[in-house]
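Sample intake sheet
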Amino acid sequence: MKHYQNNGINILLEKMPKTPRMSVSFFFKINKKEKFFGINSLLARLFLQGTKKYSAVELSLAFENECIDITTKAKQDYLKFSLCFLNEDFNRAMDLVKDLILNSTFDDFEKEVFKLKGEIISDLDNPKMKLTDTFVKNLFKNHPYSSTHTKILEDLDKITKNDIIEAHSALFNCFKSIVVVGDYENDEKMIEYFTSNFDFMKSCDETCEIEDIFKLDIEKDEIVKIVKNDASQAQIIQGWLVDSFNSNLSAKIAVLNNVLGSSGLSSRLFVNLRDKQGLAYTVRSQYETLAHSAIFNMYIGTAPINIQKSLNGFKDELQKLADIPLSDEELTGAKENIQGRLKYFTQNNSQINAVDGYNFMMGLGLDYNERFMEEIRQVNQKDIQDMAKMLLSMPKLITIIAPESAMKEV
């Protein structure tokens, strides 16, 4: 993929000959703390609910009739429009998305608030969703990243249509990029097209940071218990705030994560806690990177009687990794698994667009995947031991949802 900056517009292009569908994304970096939690989520939804030119129904029919797939998504660090369409429909797709970005009316504001509220309430009926919500909310206390379902639900009725309009205006004063992957004529014509027709995508300084950011930290171990007396299963998340992709520890944590619980049936948590001890219905680990922080966590679904055994199992598996070096075979397998997953998730035009567009938006560079894999290849047994020791020594957050009687001794 190549990066061009023309007239202040960041344009990323990857020509993929003989592919029938093109993928185009528009990224807007979020650099302003939400006035109320949920504003960006509402904004992303409202973009598809009508413009000055088209009603919501007309928009839906236009995208459907032209076989143009479009999604709008608000994440912690960015908002983006993603489109996938037949090559010959490029101009039509760009006309529609330009209209969405510039001329959305947000007239269905109250209806979308009502719908979002209902969806959140429904989602929080799911114990695992409620567990994750509580975990993230407590891990990122008062930070912009704590915009969970429950936080949004608390703020939804405070949000006005004017707040949405202000958030929309703020998108044009941030770092932005256009990403194109597909079979097009040549780079020069694509650059000329976007320079002539999308001048509102001129970008501010790449280094702009989110307002009111502060260093995230956990000062001591904390346990948050959610009582659900009718639950037949206990669910547990244990996690830490760790370094993100901009750290030299990131590759080491990624390999540790793969060995411990993200590689499916072969991972240590699965083999030792589920297969050998019979503790788990589901068990895994996860390493989630964000612009200003990252989360490493372990999750298990187990019988309520096994809560303490499961927590002990988490600690035991980390202690084994700290005390006993990995075999060459296990270390190599973890690295190959990570490389295979990266290849799997960058097979088609939309996947390449999403991965490279995200890397660029986060300031990682278009060669990040290659650099990251080189860092993965350099990880050794001692690195994994050091990462396990680091986690064992760091304050952690444990969140449990289970019947009250099962949590008395935790």
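Comment: The chain has a mean pLDDT of 93. DSSP finds 15 helices and eleven strands in the chain.
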